[in-house]
């Protein structure tokens, strides 16, 4: 698909000052325009599907639905949409999960002022954008693991990750059922499956795991 003359961009981040800063940098370029904003992953999914956007910039850690969860949903439901992750964390795990979710690149917030324009343009050309230490991490991971497909980041299904995030945010089973539009019985089944898969016994352990996975912030 040819690169549009002006790339229409959705910026999703739960901090208004970050969205404002990205918009200022991107809108200063003649070929880039921020046309939509979202403050959490659920809103990002809704707006990306409803509006005419070519690329979504998604913060890795957002309330309700994370950027990685949003990327996974959007890559399935709107595969032509380009995805770029934004994060304050120099984390190999977040990087790997972002790429698995369908993102073309990963930009650190600390470097966003001078990296974001290049990252957007590379992504729109069908190329990848990774900060230097991320490349080293990918190489190390390949060498250490080989091509054995151990699936260490795929232990939980996307739905189980959604339930886990809400459990860690202290939602009750009833509130989770309402949020995800499923039955309380289904929520409890997901909860037990999560505990069994992770070898854990209570919400405290699940919350610690959710923090390590970047589903919520400590």
Outline the secondary-structure elements.
Blueprint: E1 7-12, H1 16-27, E2 32-38, H2 41-50, E3 55-59, H3 67-77, E4 82-87, H4 92-100, E5 105-108, H5 112-124, E6 129-130, H6 132-145, H7 158-168, H8 173-180, H9 184-198, H10 203-213
Helix pairs in contact: 1-5, 2-3, 3-4, 7-9, 7-10, 8-9
Question: What's the short story on this structure?
Answer:
By secondary structure, this protein is an alpha/beta fold. The chain has ten helices and six strands.
Features:
10 helices, 6 strands, 6-stranded parallel β-sheet, alpha/beta, 218 residues
Description:
With about 220 residues, this protein is of the alpha/beta class. The chain is built from ten helices and six strands, in the order βαβαβαβαβαβααααα. A six-stranded parallel sheet has the order 2-1-3-4-5-6, sandwiched between helices. Helix 4 links the parallel strand 4 (about 80-85) and strand 5. Helix 2 runs parallel beside helix 3 (about 65-75) and helix 8 crosses helix 9 (about 185-200). The longest helix has 15 residues, at about 185-200. Residues about 145-155 have low confidence and may be disordered.
């Amino acid at each position: 698909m040819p690169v549009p003359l002006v790339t229409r961009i959705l910026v999703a981040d739960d901090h208004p000052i970050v969205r404002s800063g990205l918009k200022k940098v991107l809108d200063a370029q003649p070929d880039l325009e921020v046309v939509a904003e979202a403050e959490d992953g659920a809103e990002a999914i809704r707006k990306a599907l409803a509006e005419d956007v070519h690329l979504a910039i998604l913060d890795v850690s957002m309330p309700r639905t994370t950027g990685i969860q949003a990327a996974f949903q959007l890559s399935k439901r709107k595969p032509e949409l380009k995805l770029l992750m934004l994060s304050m964390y120099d984390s190999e795990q977040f990087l790997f999960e972002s790429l698995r979710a369908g993102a073309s690149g990963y930009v650190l917030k600390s470097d966003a002022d001078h990296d974001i324009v290049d990252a957007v343009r590379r992504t729109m050309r069908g190329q990848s954008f990774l900060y230097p230490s991320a490349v080293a991490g990918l190489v190390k991971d390949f060498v250490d693991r080989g091509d054995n497909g151990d699936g260490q980041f795929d232990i939980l299904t996307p739905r189980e990750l959604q339930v886990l995030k809400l459990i860690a945010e202290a939602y009750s089973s009833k509130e989770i059922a309402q949020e995800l539009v499923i039955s309380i019985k289904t929520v409890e089944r997901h909860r037990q499956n999560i505990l069994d898969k992770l070898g854990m016994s209570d919400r405290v352990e699940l919350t610690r795991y959710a923090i390590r996975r970047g589903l919520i912030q400590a």
